[in-house]
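BUG: 3D viewer hangs when loading the predicted structure for this chain

Environment: internal workstation, default settings.
Expected: structure renders.
Actual: progress bar stalls at 90%.

Input used:
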Amino acid sequence: MTVLDPFIDAFGTAQQWLFEQAVQPALYTLGMGNLLEDAFDATGWLLAGLLQIVVMLTVFRALERWRPAEPLTDRAAVRTDVLYTLIHRLGVFRLALFFTLVPLWNDGIGWLRLQGLPTFHLDNLWPGVTDVAWVSLLMYLLLFDLVGYALHRAQHQFSWWWQLHAVHHSQRQMTLWSDNRNHLLDDLIHDSVFVLVGLAVGIAPGQFVTVVVITQLLESLSHANVRLGFGRWGDRLLVSPRFHRVHHAIGIGHESNGAGTLGGHNFAVLFPLWDLLFRTAEFDRPVEPTGIRDQLPDQGGRDYGRGFWAQQWLGLKRLAGRG
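Structure tokens produced before the viewer hung:
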């Protein structure tokens, strides 16, 4: 028995209860009994999202009230971020992916297996060591964090991708809700890569959920409106709100070598190790305004949209070169 087993067992019990009491009866009522197995997995994502929101509303919100990084002056923008969070954390976006692209991903990986692609399990890499639950979890966290770092660099490096990712950076009022403020097409590309990597390395579904939940919770914390760092060495071990706020700072976090040049600093999602290794880390900067330079009135005052649909539409227009 490992230290993780009681939590895994408790989560499984809660998932089974929620499925039997709510999801399963609803499916039978709707005549969708053929989806029971997949719906059980979806229930796990729903439960994980609910637990995250509880942590966000209690722990992270308390931190924001304790020591805010800046006054909250645009609550309407924050409410839009709440909508993004509910769509993603409660599984609405993931459910849409499940019914559209996940079957294609599974078929593609299955075809590659038939063509001789070997099955690789990261937790079998070092028998007796990597098959220990917490060791394999840490390895998967490192692997997916490296993938996340690479994707994040690409979002800032390629102009077409930046036009979508700019939705995330256009928030001038960063809060614990800001992590999921993304263009849906941006999320589609990002999540597709993560799922494909997960299928390729053979991560177990339960481990994948755990990796995603840990990552999302720490991302919510890193976006929180709180003056909080983890100290000189802690900030080099784990991404803090202070470290990530630099990434959102106007003209610093997402620009390099002068105004308007794509690039930036502090791309890591969980571990600043990658920023240190690839020389994109920026430490010890003061709290600065967040957003995008061309949003400023003296820089053109570009409109990135106020509400969810406006932000999505303007993102597509920018992608088409008409924004």
